[in-house]
Design brief:
By secondary structure, the protein is of the alpha/beta class. Helix content is 39%, strand content 22%. A hairpin with a 2-residue loop joins β2 and β3 (50-58). Bound molecules: guanosine-5'-triphosphate. Guanosine-5'-triphosphate binds next to α1. Keywords: Hydrolase.
Length: 192
């Protein structure tokens, strides 16, 4: 109790990682940010009966992890992950797939080294988020394709949403991620 729930937000530049994190923490949609900065935000939410402190690490897109060491450090830090793509950019969805395999690889090395069952034998709690659904006319990835990909990648949470239009949806990403991790830690022996 009292330990923050640490969430790492990842994805290609300009998909809306900062917009999503800021929307969740402040309820506001803020249009433009300095793309070079990494930011960390904290906030508290009551979820079911728990008072949860969220620690959200919004990574800068440009460091899209060609450098494995940087990512390794962050994977070690995080309890759960949010992978963001933009529904009008297919490359950004492929980047989420790449990041999922990269973080799984780094996390499995971590649990092997420690030889412990960490959050369900190396399984990870991940949300896949397709952002900018307000740009319907530019859509390249349907919601059902996004959902299918999330299932294929073993993600616990999927949303096709617009951070611009919905605080509720942005907030649910983080809340559902917390609930998914909680469910999972209740059954720690379950393999994925
Ligand atoms: N139409 C629309 N634009 C959005 C939405 N969310 C974010 N944007 C815009 O997308 C652009 C990039 O948003 P950011 O939040 O800076 O994206 P990021 O992934 O943090 O980008 P980097 O910091 O470069 O990694 C900005 O111009 C936002 O206003 C959305 O839901 N709809």
């Amino acid at each position: 109790k009292g330990r923050p729930f640490k969430v790492l937000v990842l994805g290609q530049p300009s998909v809306g990682k900062t917009a999503l994190s800021v929307r969740f923490v402040t309820r506001r949609f803020i249009g433009d940010y300095d793309p070079t900065l990494e930011r960390r935000y904290q906030c508290q939410r009551k979820i079911e009966r728990d008072c949860v402190t969220f620690d959200v690490f919004d990574t800068a897109g440009q460091m899209s992890f060609d450098d494995d060491d940087l990512l390794r450090e962050k994977v070690r830090w995080a309890d759960a992950f949010v992978l963001v793509y933009s529904i009008n950019d297919r490359c950004s969805l492929e980047e989420c797939t790449r990041l999922k395999f990269l973080i799984s690889h780094l996390a499995s090395k971590r649990s092997q080294r420690l030889s412990l069952c960490d959050q369900g034998c190396g399984g990870m709690t991940i949300a896949l988020v397709g952002n900018k659904s307000d740009l319907e006319s530019e859509r390249m990835i349907s919601a059902s394709e996004g959902l299918e990909r999330s299932q294929h990648l073993g993600c616990s949470v999927f949303f096709d949403l617009s951070v611009r239009e919905s605080y509720q949806d942005a907030s649910k990403v983080f809340e559902n991620l917390y609930l998914a991790l909680k469910r999972r830690s209740r059954s720690p022996r379950k393999h994925r």
